[in-house]
Amino acid sequence: MLPIREIRYQPHAPSQRYPFNIPALQGLQGIILDRAVTFFIGDNGSGKSTLLENLALAAGLNPEGGSRHASYDPAHTNTELANALHIVWNRKPMGGFFFRAESFFDYASYLDETARAAGPNEDPYAAYGGLPLHERSHGESFLALFRHRIVPTRPALLLLDEPESALSITGQFALLRFMRQWEQSGVVQVIVATHSPILLAYPGAAIWDFDKSPLAAVSYDESDPVRLTRAFLDAPSRFLREIFSDE
Known about the structure:
Layout: E1 4-9, E2 30-32, E3 37-41, H1 48-58, E4 85-89, E5 95-100, H2 104-116, H3 138-149, E6 156-161, H4 169-184, E7 188-193, E8 206-209, E9 216-218, H5 224-234, H6 236-243
Parallel strand pairs: 3-7, 3-8, 5-6, 6-7
Antiparallel strand pairs: 1-2, 1-4, 8-9
């Protein structure tokens, strides 16, 4: 059974202030989460990461990234939206993690601080493959977390914000394999904000488009990351002529 059944959007009153004025939220009542893997897509500024960050806070996770036990300061995230989100749980997860690419450097630094304060028999790096995340490349540190930190042995909610940002094509293929392992565990639910047409190909996933107002579910082939990437690869010269036409 998946941890979350539904996210209900229940603002206290209409507001034209950010983030309540995000177009995708207008008229929204809720998002049904009936798949092991759900994607949030949309152009820059569409609100997908904002909703994911506030969902992390509503679920008890650090909105800057990490588990519910991560205790560094969430100094940058606007968290007003969290109060308008009501999570309908099938069952509360025993574990959870919010991966936020934008602030992952800060999370790696927090892990280093934890290691410096650890006792002689404690190794905070053990859950990340045994090395500090700062001693790996950006993409390697992402994969180390996905490979070692997220172990699908108990009910868990995983929120991933643009995990493809530092990953090569082969790194994204590796993430797809990890996602399949998490799903096959039967206890892990994954919600991903992404621009990647590769990740969106994950079989059976739900895709919610934040460029719709209110936001709505779309198919893989209808999604803009897939549609526009295909069109570009079919005729890159034509696209480049249009892009450079104002020069």
